[in-house]
Write a structure and sequence with these properties.
This protein has about 190 residues and is of the alpha+beta class. Helix content is about 20%, strand content about 30%.
């Protein structure tokens, strides 16, 4: 019976410390959800408050900072494969923040004497990009997540991700992608 009594005494002694910590907070909890442009959650996104307080979003894309003082704050959002964003947030707020990240798009244009006129035609909206090797391996393994990321890449050069046309080996099918292991490269054309 003594171990049980000891445990009860220890938990009773710890309770006032927790309530004192809450009373000493001169602010409120700041919570939010980090997602991409297709509403897919982004786990392990780094959220930095005013360059000092840092948390990461969980597997569900949610984050929480337990005690943030009232006033204007700067939030910096970073996640692998996405463009870094800084936003201003004013506290107190009655609702959770809804934060959207867009994919980071890097475009490489190779110009040489053999460049065809088709590549520089007035019918194209900009340079195309090709993902292969390590860049391809950084994309999601899950086919649904991969499809969402490919749609986001298309939207990164302008347009709505839902309107992206996906062609696999010359056949249009915007609902299914082959397994990532069987993909040699992905070419994004901003037409």
């Amino acid at each position: 019976m003594k171990p049980l009594i000891y445990l009860l005494a220890a938990s009773a002694a710890a309770a006032p410390l927790h309530s004192d910590a809450q009373r000493n907070c001169a602010g409120q909890a700041l919570t939010g959800l980090v997602h991409d442009t297709t509403a897919g959650v982004i786990p392990e996104a780094t959220v930095t408050l005013d360059g000092t307080q840092i948390v990461q979003s969980g597997a569900d894309g949610r984050f929480s900072m337990p005690c943030v003082i009232a006033g204007m704050h700067t939030l910096r959002l970073e996640a692998r494969g996405f463009a870094t964003v800084e936003i201003k947030a004013k506290l107190p707020t009655a609702k959770s923040l809804d934060l959207t990240l867009t994919p980071a798009v890097e475009t490489t244009v190779d110009v040489d004497a053999n460049t065809s006129d088709a590549a520089t035609s007035a019918n194209t909206a900009g340079p195309s990009q090709t993902l292969s090797g390590n860049r391809l391996q950084e994309l999601a393994d899950d086919p649904d997540d991969l499809l969402r990321q490919v749609q986001q890449l298309a939207s990164g050069v302008g347009g709505n991700p839902a309107n992206a046309t996906i062609t696999v080996d010359g056949f249009q099918d915007s609902t299914h992608l082959p397994p990532k292991a069987s993909i040699a490269y992905i070419k994004v054309n901003p037409d």
